[in-house]
Structure formats: structure tokens, C-alpha cells
From TrEMBL:
Lineage: Bacteria, Bacillati, Bacillota, Bacilli, Bacillales
One Pfam match: AA_permease_2
Gene3D superfamilies per the UniProt record, alphabetical: Amino acid/polyamine transporter I
Name the record gives this protein: Amino acid permease
Subcellular location(s) per record: Membrane
Membrane topology field: Multi-pass membrane protein
PANTHER family cross-referenced by the UniProt entry: CATIONIC AMINO ACID TRANSPORTER 4 (PTHR43243:SF4), INNER MEMBRANE TRANSPORTER YGJI-RELATED (PTHR43243)
Predominant place of localization: membrane
Length: 470
């Protein structure tokens, strides 16, 4: 039983940074902030804003976003402390490995893999919808069979598959080269959102905000659970720790700044969008373009759609990137086959895991419904956020003198609040989501006992300690 909770030492994790085959440090605070904005601002603001307003919260969708942002804010503080203290790849996986133990760490890594892959696939589905609408503006109609998943009457969502494989190819060329393209995509995305706000604000009719809360408090809470998906992304920054030039300073800046900027953008877009048309009209996947068409700005709507097509690519970029770094960390620790930790000497990137992550995400995007993907990503992310909060409390007690570039205030109060709010939002998710997620966790347990437990890098150390005691 004790083997399930064997832990890696802080020194052991930090020591991995000195390995010969390490990933090159190329990222600064601005790169991280842009990567965070690129990961967060995407399907959430471009797709979920309208759908959640129409189905769950009405104009009060802004409260749903604010509530979700508060929950993420508590978690972001915990991530910032860990990322500045233990700058190694792996995110919640690495943090739970040194505080709770190997078995829980394995399940956190397993959960993160599902969160990042599912988010990549869901975002690609949103990208496909914008592409279809954009092309239709030029009289180009892609076959429905190649634009829809089987459950919606199609064969495959081909554009979603193609864009994921393209971004995978880009990432396989290495972080240094691909980050320039990512920064450009983020700039385009922010530009079209600002264009939407500047044009749309002149068409806001306050009467469209009445009734403000048509579905009551329950609708706001349901909306918060749904739009939580829109904030996933800042946590992916902590998986890049080994590639950051000055992680103790730059990671907290990147995590907190990107979350704050994204929250302001979400609230502004929701206010303008629900003010331009009635919330009952927003049950469409390309809501920003739709409301511009509704007020007669077809040209601006086309520009926004084009910008969305480019901008959502940055989200796919961030999540495939994060997936590969979790694969890399788990394989390096022996919990997955060592081949997943191999680094391409030419690109200085984990090429094999990059392609593995991309191919799996492309398959899921081609055949699975976006809403189901979002809910599964939500429950996994909420669980990992809660575990990071718990890990902060444990590390403060076990390593009180450890050098921390950033410290969460009011420990243990704020981490406990973070844990409680995450659990609260998890409870508001559908029972089917809990069922599918339980199956995934069960599969992770099988992998651990079937492979990981025997191949862990900690096995020789534990055996040596047992020989000494004998």
C-alpha cells in the first residue's frame, strides 16, 4: 500500500532540469502571456458565449463568466506558486507527485491528458463551424457529410481533423519556430475581438438585457459550469516550465496576467453581444459573426469570422503543446513507455508525442460531439485544479523554507476556497459526464497497475531503501 504513495523529492524533480536531453529554454513573460491568452481566448468567447446565453443564463451569462473566472482565479494563484517554486514540466501531475504520491500523480497526469486532448478536439470543432460559415460567404459550400460527425448525420468533421494535423506538424518543428506563428495568431485574434467590440457597442440596445436573468440563479450556475471550459488554458502554461528562461518570475506573470486579460475580454464581449440581439437568437456556434450580420455589418462579420479562423488555431496550438509535455513528464518518470520522452535532436522537441497527441485529438474531433467533449474537459480540469490547491497546502507544511518566486496569500484559506468552488461546479455537471469520466479514470487505474507501478523510476530507490532497512 505504501508504494502507491511513494513520492518524488523536490530535489529529484528539479534535478531533471539538468539532464543532457533537456528542452531548450526559449520562452519569456510576454511569450507566456500571449500563449495563455491564445489558449484561453478561443472557442469560449467565439462559440460558447452565444450558446450558454441562449440555453442557460440569458444576459446574465456575464455573471456565469465572472463566477467561473473567480474559481479559476483561486486556482491560478495556486498554479503560480507551484510553477515558480518547482519549474518542471507536468503541471498538476508533477505537483501531486511530490505532495501526495505516485498513484494520485499518475491519475492526475492521466486526467490532464484527457483534458488537453478533449479540449483540442472541441476547439477544432468550433474552428470548423467558423470555417464553414466563412466559406459560405463566398458561395463555397463544403459537403455536409464532411462537416458533421456521424451522430449529426455526417461521416466525419474533416476540417477539424485537418487543422489539428496541420498544427501538429507546426509544433513538431520545435517551440522556438512555432511560438512566432502562435504569437501572430494571438495578435490577429485579439484584433478581431476589439473590432467586434468597437463596432458592436454602437448597436447595443439596453432592452435586450431584459429580463437579465431569465433562467434564474440555477441558470447562472449551470452557465458557470459550462463556460468553465472557456477559461481552460492558463494551467497549460505550467507545463512549459522547463522551457522558460526565468520561471520563478515569468510563470506567475504569464498565468495571472493572461487570466485577468481574458476575463475582461469575456465580460465585454458578452455585454455587447447580448445587447445587440435578444439572447434567444444566440443559439448558434458562430455568435460573434451572427450578431454582426443581424445589424447589417456583413463585411465586418466576414473579417471577424476570418480572424476567428486564425485565432482559434492558437488554442489548438497551446493544447497540443501541453499534451506533449505531460506525456514527456510521465514517460520520463517511467509511468508511460520511455519512447514518449524521446527528444528529436534536430528540433529539440518531443516529436513522437507531438504526433501521437495530434493524431488522437484529430480522431476524436472527427467523430465526437463538441458539447460532450467540453463537459468531459470541464470535469477533468476542475479535479486537477482542486488537487493543485490541496498540494499547495501540503507543500507549505512539508517544505516551509522552500524558495518560492510567488506565494499564495492566506494559506490554507484561499486554497480551501479553490477546492470547494471546484467541487461545487463539478456537482453541477451532468451525470453522463461523471459516468464517462469514471470510465476514463478506471482505465488509468488499469494502466498504473498493469505498467506504471513496475516501471516507475522510483522502484530502484524504494528497493534500495528496503535493502538498507533489512
Amino acid at each position: 500500500m505504501s508504494q502507491l504513495f511513494r513520492r518524488k523529492s523536490v530535489e529529484g524533480l528539479l534535478q531533471n532540469n539538468g539532464e543532457k536531453k533537456k528542452i531548450t529554454k526559449t520562452l519569456g513573460a510576454m511569450d507566456l502571456t500571449l500563449m495563455g491568452i491564445g489558449a484561453v481566448i478561443g472557442t469560449g468567447v467565439l462559440v460558447l458565449t452565444g450558446l450558454v446565453a441562449a440555453r442557460d443564463a440569458g444576459p446574465a451569462v456575464i455573471l456565469s463568466f465572472i463566477l467561473a473566472a473567480i474559481v479559476c482565479g483561486f486556482a491560478a494563484l495556486c498554479y503560480a506558486e507551484f510553477a515558480s517554486t518547482i519549474p518542471v514540466s507536468g503541471s498538476a501531475y508533477a505537483y501531486t507527485y511530490i505532495t501526495i504520491g505516485e498513484f494520485v500523480a499518475h491519475l492526475m497526469g492521466w486526467t490532464l491528458l484527457s483534458v488537453y486532448v478533449l479540449t483540442t478536439s472541441a476547439v477544432a470543432g468550433g474552428w470548423s463551424a467558423y470555417l464553414g460559415g466563412f466559406l459560405e460567404g463566398f458561395g463555397i459550400y463544403l459537403p455536409d457529410k464532411l462537416m458533421n460527425i456521424p451522430s449529426n448525420g455526417g461521416l466525419i468533421n474533416l476540417p477539424a481533423v485537418v487543422i489539428i494535423l496541420f498544427i501538429t506538424w507546426l509544433l513538431s518543428k520545435g517551440t522556438k519556430e512555432s511560438k512566432r506563428v502562435n504569437n501572430m495568431m494571438v495578435a490577429v485574434k485579439i484584433g478581431v475581438i476589439l473590432l467586434f467590440l468597437v463596432v458592436g457597442v454602437f448597436y447595443v440596445k439596453p432592452e435586450n438585457w431584459t429580463p437579465f436573468m431569465p433562467f434564474g440563479v440555477e441558470g447562472v450556475l449551470a452557465g458557470a459550469s459550462a463556460v468553465f471550459f472557456a477559461f481552460l488554458g492558463f494551467d497549460a502554461l505550467s507545463t512549459s516550465a522547463e522551457e522558460v528562461k526565468n520561471p520563478q518570475r515569468d510563470l506567475p506573470i504569464g498565468i495571472i496576467t493572461s487570466l485577468a486579460v481574458c476575463t475582461v475580454i469575456y465580460v465585454a464581449v458578452c455585454l455587447v453581444m447580448t445587447g445587440m440581439v435578444s439572447y434567444t437568437e444566440l443559439n448558434v456556434p458562430e455568435a460573434m459573426a451572427y450578431v454582426l450580420h443581424a445589424v447589417g455589418h456583413d463585411a465586418i462579420a466576414g473579417i471577424v469570422a476570418a480572424g476567428a479562423i486564425i485565432g482559434i488555431m492558437a488554442v489548438i496550438f497551446a493544447y497540443i503543446y501541453a499534451t506533449t509535455r505531460v506525456f514527456y513528464s510521465m514517460a520520463r518518470d517511467g509511468l508511460l513507455p520511455k519512447a514518449f520522452a524521446s527528444i528529436n535532436p534536430k528540433t529539440e522537441a518531443p516529436t513522437m508525442t507531438t504526433w501521437l497527441s495530434g493524431v488522437i485529438a484529430a480522431f476524436v474531433a472527427g467523430f465526437i460531439d463538441l458539447k460532450d467533449l467540453a463537459n468531459l474537459a470541464n470535469i477533468g480540469a476542475l479535479l486537477t485544479f482542486a488537487m493543485v490547491g490541496l498540494s499547495v497546502i501540503i507543500l507549505r507544511k512539508s517544505h516551509p523554507s522552500l524558495k518560492r518566486g510567488f506565494r499564495v496569500p492566506l494559506v490554507p484559506f484561499l486554497p480551501i476556497v479553490s477546492i470547494g468552488t471546484c467541487v461545487f461546479l463539478m456537482i453541477n455537471l451532468p451525470s453522463s459526464t461523471w459516468l464517462y469520466f469514471s470510465i476514463w479514470i478506471l482505465l488509468g487505474v488499469v494502466v498504473y497497475f498493469g505498467y506504471s507501478k513496475k516501471h516507475s523510476v522510483l522502484v530502484p530507490k524504494v528497493q534500495e531503501e528496503e535493502r538498507k532497512r533489512a
